[in-house]
Design brief:
about 210 residues, mainly alpha, about 70% helix, about 0% strand
Length: about 210
C-alpha cells in the first residue's frame, strides 16, 4: 500500500510538471497537438491523485497500521463514519483530500470545455496545474501521508485521548464541516485561470487590432 500510494503521488507530480510545460506551449502557439496532449496530462494527473487518495482510504478502512498516518488517526474500534472522515483528519490526509478536489474540479472544467474556448483553456489548465504542483510538492517532500515507521518508532506511543476514536469523536462536526468546503476554494484555481486566460485573449486582440 505504501509503495503504491507513494508511486502515485510522485507520478502525479511528474505528470503535473509535464502538463504545465505542455499547456504553456499550447497557450503560446495555439497548437492543437499540444492542446490535446496538455488535456491528457491533466486527466492523467487527476487519475494518479485519485489513486493515491483511494489507497490511503483503503489503508484506513483495512487498518494498515504500518502507515504512520493510519496509526495516528484511526483504530480498530472506530465506526465506519469516522474511518472515512479520518482521510482528512490530519495535515497530510487533508492536503491529499484537497488536492483530489482541486484535480477533480480542473478535470471537470477541462472536459466540459473540450470543444469551446480553445484559446483560453490552456491557460485555465495551466493555473490549475500550478496550484496542484504546489500541493503535490508539499505532499511528496514535506508531509507524505504514506510514510511508514522507522525501527525506533512505536505506533502505540501517544495513543491517548488525542488520537484514534476519542479524538475523532470530539471532532464530529469537523467531519461534517470539512466536506462543506468542497465547492469553495478548490474552484478558485479554475476561476483564476479563466481570468488570466481572458486577459491574455484581450491583449492578443488588442495587438491584432493595432497591427
Amino acid at each position: 500500500m505504501k509503495f503504491v500510494g507513494t508511486v502515485a503521488l510522485y507520478s502525479a507530480l511528474f505528470v503535473t510538471i509535464v502538463g504545465l510545460a505542455l499547456n504553456w506551449v499550447a497557450g503560446m502557439t495555439q497548437s492543437r497537438r499540444f492542446l490535446l496532449s496538455s488535456r491528457y496530462a491533466a486527466f492523467a494527473s487527476t487519475a494518479f491523485v485519485a489513486t493515491a487518495s483511494a489507497v490511503l482510504q483503503n489503508a484506513i478502512l483495512t487498518h494498515d497500521f504500518s502507515i504512520q498516518y493510519v496509526a495516528s488517526f484511526s483504530d480498530r474500534s472506530m465506526h465506519l463514519f469516522y474511518l472515512i472522515g479520518a482521510l482528512w483528519g490530519g495535515q497530510a490526509g487533508s492536503l491529499l483530500f484537497w488536492t483530489s478536489i482541486v484535480t477533480f474540479s480542473m478535470t471537470s472544467v477541462v472536459y466540459m470545455n473540450r470543444n469551446k474556448y480553445q484559446d483560453m483553456m490552456p491557460w485555465v489548465t495551466f493555473v490549475c496545474l500550478l496550484v496542484q504542483l504546489g500541493l503535490l510538492l508539499i505532499l511528496c517532500f514535506g508531509t507524505n501521508p504514506f510514510d511508514g515507521f522507522s525501527i525506533i518508532d512505536d505506533p502505540m506511543v501517544g495513543k491517548g485521548p488525542a488520537h484514534g476514536s476519542a479524538r475523532l469523536g470530539h471532532e464530529f462536526w469537523f467531519r461534517r464541516t470539512q466536506p462543506a468546503g468542497w465547492p469553495g476554494w478548490p474552484s478558485y484555481p479554475a476561476l483564476a485561470g479563466t481570468v488570466v486566460a481572458s486577459k491574455k485573449r484581450r491583449n492578443r486582440r488588442a495587438v491584432v487590432g493595432l497591427s
